[in-house]
Each structure stands twice: as C-alpha cells, then as structure tokens.
Amino acid sequence: METTGWAGHPLPYDLYRQAIERETLRFAEAAKGADPATAVPACPDWTLAELTQHVGALQRWFCTLLSRLVQEPPRSRDVELGLPERPEEYADWVAAGVPDVAAVLRATDPRAPMWAWGADQHARFWARRMLCETLVHRVDAERAVGRESAVDPVLAADGVDEFLVNLPYAGLFAPAVTKLHGNGEILAFRCADATGGTDEEWRVRLEPDGFRLLPRARTDAAPSEATAAVRGRAADLLLLLYGRRSYQETAFDVSGQTAVLDRWFAHTAF
After folding, report:
1. What is the pTM of this model?
2. For the chain, which domains are there?
3. Which of 123, 184, 199, 231 has a Cα-to-Cα distance from 262 of 20 to 30 A?
4. Using an 8 Å Cβ cutoff, are 199 and 219 in contact?
5. Per-residue pLDDT tens for 107-130?
C-alpha cells in the first residue's frame, strides 16, 4: 500500500489513517459527559448531540463509499448507523466506530480509482476529506464545551491545501461558490509557522469565469504580488477558511484590499 505523498497530497496515506483515529477519539472525549443539548457556536443550528451524530454518520458513509469503491455519485447517503437511542451515548458510539474506520482505510488501496466530488478521483480523496472533517469538528466540539483546542500545524497546513484544492468543485453542495469570480485579483494565504515544514503560501486568482488555485510557493521566497493577503499560523488559517475565525482578529496579519477578502468569505461558506 502506498505510504508516501503524491501530487496534491503532501502527507503519507498511513498518516491520514492514524490521524483520523486520533482526531475521532479526541472528538468523542470532548463530547462524552457533556450535555447533548449544548449549543455549538461554530454550527449555530446544531446541538452537541447533532454534531456528534453528524461526525459518526459521515465517517460511516465515507467508509461505505470506500468499501464499494463507487464509480458514480451515490443516489442516497442512507447507511446503517446503529445509532443509540439516548443522545448521551452518541460519543461512545463515535468512538466505537474507530476500529471499523481504521480497518476500511487499511484495506483500501489509496490509488484505487473511484468517484469523488473533488479534484482527485481516487480513494485517497476520502481519507484526506475524512481527516479534515473530523479535525475541524473536533475543534467545534471542544470549543462548545469550553476546552482549549490545539491543532498539529502539519495537519492544519494540509487541511488548508485540501480546502483550497477542492473548493472549485464544492458547488455541488455550496452553490455560492459557483458565483465567486473577479478580474484577476489574487488572494494569498500565508502560513506563519516557523517549524514543521508549513512555511507556505497559497494563492488564488479570481477570474471572470470563476477562480483557480495557483502553484504553491514558499513564504521564504520573494513575496508574491497579491491583491489581498492574510498571514497566520496554519491552524488559524484552517479555521479561518472554514468560517470558524475572522480575518479581523489579531491572530492574522492582513494587507491589501479587504473588500476582496469580504467577497471571498461571502461565497466560500462550506
């Protein structure tokens, strides 16, 4: 099985599998014992019980797709969940699914062709997507119960990349993305982490017919020209792109035309 990186996927496949297990258990730990009716500020319409059900259901659906190596968009997201009757048991239910998730990922060839809604039409797409979903929602759960959240900067930088690589294809469920365009403006998201190999920059060009991610650059190279730029730690950039933070917070250094940033974030809710 492939254990090295690939174009567009800078992390080893086995690292995704291990990180999914770790992040899922951290999510379950945050949710366990908390009031299921606790509001989740990052997901205003959800309680902690609904967030927990979402995470467990999504992982089981992804595993169903991987087990079948589906070759076309599924018509239904209905899978056998085995959801407990009592919301107080949802956290244990999420944790109990970890061995099955790990087994499916271990048994799957990451290079196997299969349908995916994003850029990479291979099984590895779903491992990377599952990690991003689980990691961000783990932070959501921790913040909902008043815990501090730490995010590995390497995983965070990979999550930034995954978000931006796949965003042009997200109109399937985020229609506002299809209306994001411009006249050549360039947005730069610059990573401020000094260690961990995350000193990178992602640049997006807004064009009349949409937008596209430009070739990645290192932040130690000559600064690129950008209409607007946001610089912050990888973890903060990840939460910013997912709408969990605002570029107006002191965690970010912002330059250029903020109107372009406002347009970006108004269309990229995910």
Report:
1. 0.92
2. 13-150 (1.20.120.450), 157-267 (3.30.1050.10)
3. 199
4. yes
5. 999 999 999 999 999 999 999 999
